[in-house]
Amino acid sequence: MEYEISPDYLPITPSSLRTNTTVGCDIFLLAKTTAEVRFVLYCRRDAVFDDEKKNMLTAQKIKSLFIKKEEQGAFFEYLENNFQHIISDTSIPTDERTKIVHSAATNLVKDLFNDPKSGSVERTKTFAHNMVDYVIKDSKAAESLLKIAVHEYYTYTHSVNVAAVGTLFGQGLGMGVKDLKGLCAGILLHDVGKTRISTNILNKPGKLTKEEFEIIKKHPELGIEVLEETGVEFKEERIVTIQHHENDDGSGYPYGLKKDEIHPCGKISRVIDVYDALTAKRSYADAIRPFAALKVMKEEMLNCFDTELFKEFIRFLGPYDPRKKQRDDDKLYS
Ligand SMILES: [Fe+2]
What we know:
By secondary structure, the chain is mostly helical. The chain has helices at 51-59, 72-81, 83-88, 94-114, 116-137, 139-151, 158-172, 177-189, 199-202, 210-216, 219-230, 236-243, 264-279, 290-300, 307-317, 327-332; strands at 9-12, 21-22, 27-32, 37-43, 48-49, 65-68. The chain has a two-stranded antiparallel ribbon with strand order 1-6. The longest helix has 22 residues, at 116-137. The termini are far apart. Fe (ii) ion (FE2) is lined by residues 190-191, 219, 244-245, 273.
């Protein structure tokens, strides 16, 4: 029998709860009888989630717990605080750990674009460092994250997916851990300057006027302002933020840099940003699938990229082609 789950509750995975911690929000079980389905309080927000509670879940084979939607902020804070423990807990299957990483990142990015002043820029940096540690230590983790990132590309998880693709691409290029951490945080933060631009312009359906486009073009510099206001030290993050619209042939903005005037992180972020723009569902155009995006990038936008780097990107995404045949992509560069 199918039940409709109330939209006031969100499912969470039991493996995201660490024993001997306090979660900070009420946790519910779904109790089903033939007559009704209802949520039963299982662990209070201030109660310790202990072994006894955990064993009960295992014994009853309970796969899903629930939190109230209005308390999701507290739950995601809990996830971020316990993140290192969760990602290094090998008793949790890799795919489940990856889902936890992914949902925490998605929530973080939502906070970042709602209000970059409330500490979310700093949280993003910390989170990106942990995420890189996670994928570096465990090749299965990288694999499962990439699978999610390439196959699920709904708008609300989009920047997380793009950061995952960018970071793992950087890893494939042989970048060191420190650079990867900066790159990952940079990709999550690169468009934060858009929070200083009117949503009337950002979400305008149809073509922008010349004046409006000039305003949009300010977002890399506005992003640097946001980073500087935090007082936190950023390096690769600044490069990615300021250079992600610079084109290889010098036609980009804000400085019109070309070829090796653009930092490797800037070059990577340009490829990733276009891939992002094409695969995201935007107000003015429907999203296209990742592998069709590569084709558009090659045929219409090659001037934007370092050609060698772009070829590497195609090779990197190739094995994740859902069609498995890779015919079209092999034809892109063979
Ligand atoms: Fe941008």
